[in-house]
Amino acid sequence: RQERYRQLRFKAPVTLDGVRIALNTNAGLLFDLPHFDESGADGIGLFRTELQFMIAPTFPKMGQQAELYSKILDGATGRPVTFRTLDIGGDKVLPYLTRSVQEENPAMGWRAIRIGLDRTVILRTQVRALLKAAGGRELRVMFPMISTVEEFVKAKELVKGEQRFLEKHGHALPSSLKLGAMIEVPALLFELDELLSVVDFVSVGTNDLFQFMLAVDRGNAKVAQRFDPLAPSFLRALRTIARKSAEYGKPATLCGELGGTPLTAMALMAIGFRSMSMAATSVGPVKDMIRSVNLGELEALLAPALNRPDGPPIRKLLQDFAESRD
Ligand code: PEP
Ligand code: MG
Q: Subcellular location, in the record's words (predicted)?
């Protein structure tokens, strides 16, 4: 199988009925670059910048951040890279970042963009590093754990401010800059029109979105496996995001674990996703699946199932569908 996936490296992820699906990888360190390259992915769909911070003894300096981002862009050789600003807090703790209170529910606490908007020096420094590293090149940045459109707008203004600062000081700016929001907090589903009017793209973080929609702690083994993300309720939510984004002409991609197995990726394609980001090791198996299915058939299979929360499990339908093709 490994050999089979290796051979797929230079083949495009296109379904039997000719639909091209973009496959990207999730990354976070320089160490990920060779895996990204071997996977034959279209780009890096999620670069988790917090990893550099988590392995450092103290806040990485602006220059160190810029150096890493620049090396990542070099390694991607023109393929798009989407950097996510710091997502610390929750399960990702930085010992050197002081907190005033002990949190009972850190996943819903002071984390990600909330820290960035409160301690703007942290976000500003990171944004400056990103803008500098991408001088003369394309830059894509997204913000984690956005809960309201207003938060995204504030983060966007901060980026624009940094851009003006660098321009005034004669630095080369990115040749293009795209700013996106991660959809991980359910409230955004009810503000999609407003959100899609101000973003360049959205990226669905299904790990967090599922945790918050079902109120099921993703890190708690006792409950984490209790509900199936392929249940109609969750797939309907994801379908709404895919449809609305298409309506607004804004690319929607998905970077949670759900994109990373052939079976779940099948469901995501069937409800409208045309771009996914996953671990480098998932690209081969997912591509293999894409090249063996007819998307029209898959859509016809899933559409009625989504209308029936009381119907047979969608996972089972997809398993049967996959087996019938083997
Ligand atoms: C997610 O929540 O789905 C996601 C991609 O972000 P992380 O797993 O880093 O929280
Ligand atoms: Mg997340």
A: Cytoplasm
